[in-house]
Amino acid sequence: MAVKQTDSLAGQVDMTRLPRHIAIIMDGNGRWATRRGLPRTAGHKAGAETFRRIATYCKNIGVQYLTVYAFSTENWKRSADEVGAIMALLKKYMEEAVETMERDNIRLHFFGDMTPIAPELRALARETDEITEHLSADAFQANVCLNYGGRDEILRAVRQFAADCAAGKRKPEELDEALFSGYLDSRNIPDPDLIIRPSGELRLSNFLLWQCAYSEFYFTDALWPDFDEAELNRAIVAFQARDRRFGGVKK
Ligand code: FPP
Predict the structure, then answer these.
(1) Fewer CB near the last or first residue (10 Å), C or N of the chain?
(2) Torsion of CA 65, 31, 76, 92, to 10 degrees
(3) Is the CB of 68 under 6 A from ligand 1?
(4) Catalytic position from the list 29, 60, 75, 113
(5) Is residue 53 in contact with ligand 1, taking CB distance under 6 Å?
(6) Whose CA is nearest to atom 3 of ligand 1?
(7) Parallel, antiparallel, or unpaired for β 194-197 and 21-25?
(8) What is the pLDDT of residues 87-142, one digit of tens each?
(9) pLDDT more than 90, % of the chain
(10) Ligand 1 probe mutation, 25, 32, 41, 44, most atoms within 8 A of CB
(11) 66 CB under 6 A from ligand 1?
């Protein structure tokens, strides 16, 4: 597919060595809005648009998986207004996805504990899962982390493994990294090659704690609503300059 060259940096991206899986902490929406004298919710609205734009760009250049942190297990501490606004944006995105993902060949999956999520959103997530199952396994896939925490994901996996052992389906001595990975929300999805955090914060905030073991990290001061194709190209160029050894030595 022809890729629109959005800036001069696009030419520096080696399209034959793209990260297969990019994960992003969509941070800085609140600051973006406050700096403009707008309510924080306006920042989330702009952030949702940025997500659409970056997902489309990833799909067009041939990145296979994009995972975004939309709502953490800790984000319930925010005001009811802000939580409601984020949930409304997610609902709108899910409704659009139900209508368009088949046409656009986009798989959509949710990471996180959906138990406390409103029934209408859970029903929409079930619908998008069903559509995803019919789409080809090598189609572009967006993963949205909703009521997600890396520690919570690991605990849920441990609980399920323990329950399977108690039911006689598994034996503790069978457990290895591959088997454990199969209990996580990210089962069947390769670990992220590149994790991006905009907005100048230098921390992981409970994001993909198991999966990030060998990920490359990229931090930028740009706030998420200002993050664009040029920013993503910059992150990919930086990623391509890294020497990934996975604990080995250079030949
Ligand atoms: C972090 O910025 C952002 C969030 C907690 C919410 C992200 C949600 C969306 C972009 C909307 C819905 C998503 C999709 C996929 C349609 P912050 O509020 O912590 O920013 P701050 O650090 O500047 O306050």
Answers:
(1) C
(2) -50
(3) yes
(4) 75
(5) no
(6) 27
(7) parallel
(8) 999 999 999 999 999 999 999 999 999 999 999 999 999 999 999 999 999 999 99
(9) 92
(10) 44
(11) no
